[in-house]
Amino acid sequence: IGWLLLLMAAGFSIAGLPEVEATAIAARSTPWLPYAVWLLTMTGIGLLAGFAMLSAVFPSGRLPRGMIGQLTRLALLTIAFVAVLQALAPSFSKPLSDGTLAVIVNPFAVAPGWSGWAAFDGIGLAYVVLLGAIVVCIGGLLARFLRAVGIERQQFKWLLGSLALVAIAMAFGFMAAAIVGRDKDWVWLPGILAFPLPSIAIGIAVLRYRLYDIDRIISRTISYGVVSAMLVAVYAGLILVLQGPLGAITGGDTIAVAASTLAAAALFQPVRRRTQAAVDHRFNRARYDAERTIDALAARLRDEMDLPFVGSAVVDAVARSVEPTAASLWLRPGRLR
Predict the structure, then answer these.
(1) Rounded to whole angstroms, how far apart are CA atoms 43 and 11?
(2) Which of 14, 106, 182, 284 could be a cystine partner for 177, CB 3.0 to 4.6 Å?
(3) Alpha helix positions (H), 188-284
């Protein structure tokens, strides 16, 4: 899901260059024009495919199983097939601001004489199939949402809400383009504003409902950032302090650098442990509480060896640390001394 979001962000940046494309088409004199139009066209299809893939794998990162999974895979294959055909079409038609239609020859065209390429002129059959496949993927997401419970259901709500806004904005763009003409750029403004919403919704789902063990990621990022800053400060401070007296004796700063490096290396583990404990106490509370539970169990076992007490203490520690659905302790007969 992270890679999908990064690719969609890159595609969204490329797709935001319509003025460059329109200027180049109007000039009709730049040698890179066919390649730029090809890239911008494929980027638009890639963004739609990215939304479909994102709706198919959220929130687990894997394609669903069963009938929903089969339909989703078929839809994704259809999207890939349409994208390949579009990439190999003989030409691209682009409306200009003056109302004329510019036809750009595709530098990667294959079999330009095939009559089936007519489906790719304007909003043709290929785009209808593409949108239908995307609707199937989103329908699978809705079906999985209806079956989900608990935290997963809340995560689905955020993404479905954002996708609903994207669908409304895109529908508005198509209807407005059909009424006032495709050369009016303002008809796609709602769609442009809505495209980043699924990424924002996923970010909210990650932070609000601890998706992908976000507490651990945050605690590790903060702790290692703090440790790095502290060690750099110690390293630089020791160099400044030792460089004067040691430099006067040795005639250089090599010993000061070596001493500062050794001091920073020696402090790394103690500083990391203390910083990690402090950060976990604030940001990764589950891990912090689990470690405190295990430490308390170890302290109790040092003073108490009665078997019933030990058994109940172990089960209680496991239940509070990892919170399983059920916990029990089985002792193999004949092994007790």
Answers:
(1) 6
(2) 182
(3) 189-194, 197-208, 214-250, 254-283
Give the pair of three-digit tokens for residue 250.
Answer: 């040795």
Tokens of 310: 């030990």
91: which strand partners? 105
Give the pLDDT of the chain (337 residues) as one tens digit per residue: 888 888 888 887 776 565 555 555 555 556 777 777 787 778 878 888 888 888 888 887 888 888 888 888 898 898 888 888 878 877 776 666 556 666 777 777 777 777 767 666 655 566 777 788 888 888 888 888 888 887 888 888 888 888 788 888 888 887 877 777 666 777 778 888 887 888 888 888 877 766 656 566 667 777 778 888 888 888 778 777 776 665 556 555 677 677 777 887 887 788 878 887 777 666 555 566 667 777 777 777 777 667 777 777 777 777 766 667 777 777 776 655 5
